[in-house]
Amino acid sequence: MRNFMFIAGSISKLSPTDYVGFTFFVGCMAMMAASAFFFLSLSQFDKKWRTSVLVSGLITFIAAVHYFYMRDYWTSFGESPTFFRYVDWVLTVPLMCLEFYLILKVAGAKKSLLWKMIIYSLVMLITGYFGEVIFKDSAALWGFISGVAYFAIVYEIWLGQASKLATAAGGEIYKAHKILCWFVLVGWAIYPLGYMMGTNGWYNGFIPTGNIDVVYNIADAINKIGFGLVIYSLAISAQKD
Ligand SMILES: *C/C=C(C)/C=C/C=C(C)/C=C/C1=C(C)CCCC1(C)C
C-alpha cells in the first residue's frame, strides 16, 4: 500500500478543476488512439500508400509522447511547456510537409520541393520560438517573420509548384491535396492566434485573452489527426482505382 502510494504520489496529479491540464490529457489520449488506428491499418494498404499512412501514424505518435510529458510539466509547474511544444512541432511539421511530397510524387514531385517546404517550416518554427521564448520584447517582429514563412508554405501549396503537380495528378490526389491545403490555411492559422494571445505586441488590444495552451492543444488535435485522416481516406480510395 505504501509503495503504491509512493508511486501515485510521484506522478503529478491532475486536479479536476484544471481544464488546461485536462486538454493536455485528452490530447495525449486522442493522439495515442489515432496512432494505434493508423499503425494497425497499415497492412491493408499496398506499398505505394503504406509510407504515407505510416507517416500519419508517426506524426500522431510523436505528438502523443510529447503530450505525455507536456501534461506532466503543466501539472508539476503550472507553466506552459513551450520547449517540449516546439520540439514536437519541429519534428511533426516537417513530416506534414513530407506528406504533401509523398502524395505528389506520382505526379513527379522533386526532392527540391520537399526541401523547400521543410526549410520554410523550420524558419517559421525557429523564429516563432525566438519570439515566444528568447526575444520576448520583440515578439511581434519575430511573429511577423514567422508569418512570412507560413505564407510561403501557403503559397507553395495553393498556387506554387505543389498546386501545379496536384492539378496534373488529378482525381483523388487532387481532392486530397485541396483538403490538406485548407487545413494549412485555416487549421494552421489557429497557431498565430495563440501566439498573439501569449505574447506582447500591437495586437493585444483586439486579440481576446485566454490560455495559449488550450488554443495550441485544440489546433494540434484538429491538424494532426485531421491531416492523417485525409491521407488515410486517400489511400483507401486511391487503392480501389
Ligand atoms: C502539429 C503541429 C503543427 C501543425 C504546428 C503548426 C504551427 C504553426 C503553423 C505555427 C505558426 C506560427 C506563426 C505563423 C507565427 C507565430 C509563431 C508560430 C510559430 C506560432
UniProtKB/TrEMBL annotation:
Subcellular location(s) per record: Membrane
Q: Identify the InterPro entries for this entry.
A: Arc/bac/fun_rhodopsins
Q: What processes in GO biological process is this protein linked to?
A: phototransduction
- A Pfam family that the UniProt record links to this protein: Bac_rhodopsin
The record's listing under Gene3D superfamilies reads: Rhodopsin 7-helix transmembrane proteins
**An example Gene Ontology molecular-function term:** photoreceptor activity
Give the primary localization class: membrane
Q: Which CDD domains does the entry link to? A: 7tm_Proteorhodopsin
Where is it found, in Gene Ontology cellular component terms?
membrane
Keywords, A to Z?
Answer: Chromophore, Membrane, Photoreceptor protein, Receptor, Retinal protein, Sensory transduction, Transmembrane, Transmembrane helix
Entry's transmembrane regions: 20-40, 52-69, 89-107, 114-135, 141-158, 179-198, 218-238
Keyword Transmembrane helix among record annotations: yes
Q: How does it sit in the membrane?
A: Multi-pass membrane protein
Q: Which family does it belong to?
A: Belongs to the archaeal/bacterial/fungal opsin family.
- Recorded protein name is Bacteriorhodopsin
Q: Which organism is it from?
A: Flavobacterium geliluteum
